[in-house]
Design a protein that fits this description.
Blueprint: H1 2-15, H2 25-35, H3 54-83, H4 90-123, H5 131-140, H6 148-162, H7 176-187, H8 196-203, H9 231-236, H10 248-260, H11 266-286, H12 302-305, H13 309-316, H14 327-347, H15 354-384
């Protein structure tokens, strides 16, 4: 590391004010502070000395994303070889998934960071660290057969419209990764649904075995929920779905990392789960007795294991920028996300992945929730006075 440090120090004057490459100073600063602790301190005011900063926080979130990402890679290979009726081992499955997922990750980071660097150079401020996480989240909530050019377009749209127009990291109203998925969901719906592994096998010129369905569990929810994978498959993740969303177990490992390091809010997580369960139980009570295959009859806890519910609960709803900031507001915010997610899935099957829309909806209302919580506290204190 000392070699890299010396190399950076030798070229640093070129990127400082007066140097030949001073316009690209923000880009150089981003690489330097990513690799090493910044060599400057806050110029004024009282500050707390701490070993963690925004970059280290984002890196910790990326580490928490590794269990569902690695499992998702393995599951891609497992689903593919199952679709064509070929036996495979752990490494074959993982390598297949790695080959499919790595280009999506690269396109996401290259397109997103290019936009970040351009905005940093134009606005003459340091590169925002938030895309360290967004660049990984975007590929993980995509189907594996999404065209790479769509990933690039959606990522650029998310960075520009979802974040930079609001002022950059810390100022955005909506979760950028969900903005990217929402953009593709409405602009190119055919590429965001369908029989994913069947399509992949056909593209490779391989025949899918008879009786295999590449449809996701949410895609068949409206027809008959009894046809969905078993609870065990849904929990461990051996089923069809977006790259990083299938394994509830792997996502829970990431949740433990975020909670142990104090980065994510347990209040949001638990309230999302409670909201989803209570709404699911409500539909169980009012389900039509004449149609036992109706989604209202599906056990409430199924929703926790399906689609992006677990992933959204752990990695999206807990976004400290777009979530509610007050402690009471976090409970309300999370509860409504879980409730609206299940409501959308059951009542409006045209949008089976209700988690994306419910989080984006509550992102817009989180400032209002905080406002009413603060006003309520003010009134209580005034009444006591």
């Amino acid at each position: 590391m000392k070699l890299f440090k010396n190399l950076l120090e030798s070229v640093k004057p070129q990127f400082e004010e007066g140097g030949k490459l001073h316009k690209f100073g923000p880009a150089f600063n981003a690489f330097e502070t990513f690799l090493f602790v910044p060599g400057h301190s806050a110029p004024s005011g009282a500050h707390i000395r701490d070993g963690i900063d925004l970059k280290r926080t984002m890196i910790m979130v990326v580490i928490a994303l590794m269990p569902p990402l690695f499992f998702g890679m393995w599951n891609l290979g497992y689903q593919h070889y199952t679709a064509i009726g070929v036996s495979s081992d752990l490494m074959q499955n993982f390598v297949f998934g790695l080959i499919k997922v790595l280009p999506i990750i690269i396109v996401s980071y290259v397109s997103g960071l290019t936009v970040e660097f351009i905005f940093a150079i134009i606005k003459k401020h340091p590169v925002n660290e938030g895309f360290l996480v967004s660049g990984m989240l975007i590929p993980m909530i995509m189907p594996v057969n999404v065209p790479l050019w769509m990933v690039a377009v959606a990522t650029i749209f998310a960075v520009v419209i979802g974040k930079e127009v609001f002022g950059g990291t810390g100022m955005n109203l909506l979760n950028p990764a969900l903005v990217a998925r929402c953009f593709l969901f409405f602009a190119y719906p055919a590429s965001m649904s369908g029989e994913i592994w069947n399509d992949l096998s056909l593209e490779a010129g391989q025949k899918v075995i008879d009786g295999y369905s590449g449809a996701t569990a949410l895609a068949i929810l409206d027809s008959d929920f009894h046809l969905m994978p078993s609870v065990t498959d849904m929990f461990f993740g051996t089923m069809q779905g977006s790259i990083g969303e299938t394994s509830t177990l792997a996502i829970l490992i990431g949740a433990v990392i975020l909670l142990y390091t104090g980065i994510a809010s347990w209040r949001v997580m638990i309230s999302v789960v409670i909201g989803g369960l209570l709404m699911g139980y409500f539909f169980n009570l009012v389900a039509p007795a004449s149609n036992l295959n109706h989604p209202m009859h599906m056990p409430a806890y199924y929703h926790l294991l399906l689609g992006g519910f677990a992933f959204g609960t752990v990695f999206m709803a807990t976004d400290p920028v777009t979530a509610a900031q007050t402690e009471t507001g976090k409970y309300i915010y999370g509860f409504l996300i879980g409730a609206f997610c299940v409501m959308l899935r059951v009542v409006n099957p045209a949008y089976p992945e209700g988690m994306m829309l419910s989080i984006l909806l509550m992102n817009t209302f989180s400032p209002l929730i905080d406002y009413f919580v603060v006003q309520s506290n003010i009134k209580k204190r005034l009444s006591r006075a």
